[in-house]
Design goal:
Elements: H1 2-10, H2 16-29, H3 44-73, H4 81-107, H5 134-159, H6 164-193
Helix pairs in contact: 3-4, 3-5, 4-6, 5-6
Length: 197
């Protein structure tokens, strides 16, 4: 009676091989075994290349969060307020993008990098010498968004026919970046029309 209850409570049949088989099956379930797509064994090299692309995208978004944070706090002047407000909104969106890239790296059996791997590249988004130079900030944002758009199109091309999940995610992120670009190009045109850019 006790052995019956033990088997009922634990799901163990009492036979040692049953436990080994169950453990082996659980291990199998944790490894990528897809027959097609990015997780297929024959696509291992391309999957690793994709993970590196996603890591670069992740760092681009994280650096943008840092740069946008600085540029949403430092500017002075009435004309800067609308740009500041839009940057504050964009910070949350860019952070969300970074989190999406991080999650996809993990799903593809990669490791999300830590801060020691970070190398800054956004020289054009460094705060201007004059806190009232909002045109400098606008131009920096435009350059950042154009760079992201170009790179995300590369990822979309790379994933075509290989990884539709990543491709779909990056297409959605691309749309956000195109919206940011359009908004800040509008800001720049306004300053150009006034002859202050």
């Amino acid at each position: 009676m006790v052995s019956f209850l033990l088997a009922f409570d634990t799901g163990w049949s009492g036979h040692p091989e049953a436990r080994v088989t169950k453990r082996t099956e659980e291990r199998r379930m944790t490894m990528p075994t897809m027959d097609r797509g990015v997780l297929a064994p024959e696509n291992e090299d391309r999957r690793k290349q994709l993970i590196e692309l996603l890591k670069k995208a992740y760092w681009m978004e994280m650096e943008t969060v840092m740069s946008y944070t600085a540029n949403s706090v430092n500017p002075d002047g009435v004309r800067a307020q609308e740009v500041i407000e839009d940057l504050e909104e964009d910070i949350q969106e860019e952070l969300g993008h970074a989190q999406e890239f991080a999650q996809r790296i993990k799903e593809l059996w990669g490791t999300v990098p830590g801060s020691m791997e970070f190398e800054a590249e956004q020289s054009y988004l460094q705060p201007p010498e004059e806190s009232t130079d909002i045109v400098h900030v606008i131009k920096g944002v435009i350059e950042a968004e154009r760079g992201a758009i170009d790179f995300y199109n590369e990822i979309i091309d790379f994933t075509d026919g290989l990884d539709y999940v990543t491709q779909d995610m990056v297409i959605a992120i691309l749309r956000d970046e195109e919206g940011h670009l359009r908004l800040f190009e509008g800001f720049l045109r306004e300053f150009e029309a006034e002859g202050t850019a």
